[in-house]
Design brief:
With 168 residues, this protein is mainly alpha-helical. It contains 6 helices and 3 strands. A hairpin with a 7-residue loop joins strand 2 (88-92) and strand 3 (100-104). Helix 3 (61-68) crosses helix 4.
Length: 168
C-alpha cells in the first residue's frame, strides 16, 4: 500500500482502506443492480457520463472527458453510443458554432433519475438496518470522503426522497 498518510498508523490506514473497499463493493453492487433494472444495455461508464451531464448541464467533449478522467477518444465513443440511443444530444455552442456542446436528453435524464431512485431505495433499506447510533458518524465520514474526492453532494430532492423521517 502506498505511504499516502505518513502521519497515520499503518494499521489504522489499512483498516480505513479496507472499510472503504468493502463499502465500495456494496455500493457497486447496488449501482449495477439499479442500472440493470432500468436499462440493461447501458454500461456503468456510460451511466456515469449521463450523471455528469445531468448534474453539470451542457459541456464540451474535452471538458466531459476531463470530468470523467478518460481520454477524449473514449468519451467520444461513449457519446456516439449514447447519442445513437437517444440519451445524449450534440448541439452547437450559442457563442461559438464551431464548438459542439453535449447535453443529456430527456430520456437520458429519466434513466439517471430512475436508477438513482432505485439506488436510494436500496440504500435506505440497508441504512434502516444499521444501529441508529452509527448513522451520524457514517454521514460525516462519507461526506468527508466525497469532499476529498471532489464529488458534489447529491440533492436528495432531485430524484425523489426515499429517506425515513427523523433520520440523523
Amino acid at each position: 500500500m502506498p505511504d499516502a498518510l505518513p502521519s497515520q498508523d499503518p494499521a489504522t490506514v489499512n483498516e480505513m482502506v479496507t472499510s472503504v473497499l468493502t463499502a465500495s463493493r456494496v455500493l457497486v453492487a447496488i449501482s449495477a443492480r439499479s442500472l440493470a433494472a432500468v436499462e440493461d444495455t447501458l454500461t456503468v461508464p456510460q451511466f456515469r457520463m449521463l450523471v455528469v451531464l445531468d448534474t453539470n448541464g451542457a459541456t464540451s467533449l474535452s471538458r466531459l472527458a476531463e470530468q470523467l478522467a478518460v481520454n477524449p477518444s473514449t468519451a467520444m465513443r461513449m457519446v456516439d453510443r449514447l447519442s445513437a440511443a437517444g440519451m445524449v444530444e450534440r448541439t452547437p455552442d450559442p457563442e461559438d458554432r464551431r464548438v459542439v456542446r453535449l447535453v443529456a436528453t430527456e430520456p437520458g435524464r429519466r434513466v439517471v433519475h430512475a436508477v438513482t431512485e432505485r439506488r436510494q431505495a436500496e440504500i435506505t433499506r440497508i441504512v434502516a438496518t444499521m444501529p441508529h447510533e452509527h448513522r451520524s458518524a457514517m454521514v460525516r465520514a462519507l461526506q468527508a470522503f466525497a469532499d476529498a474526492a471532489g464529488e458534489a453532494q447529491v440533492d436528495p430532492t432531485a430524484y425523489g426522497s426515499t429517506g425515513l423521517p427523523g433520520w440523523t
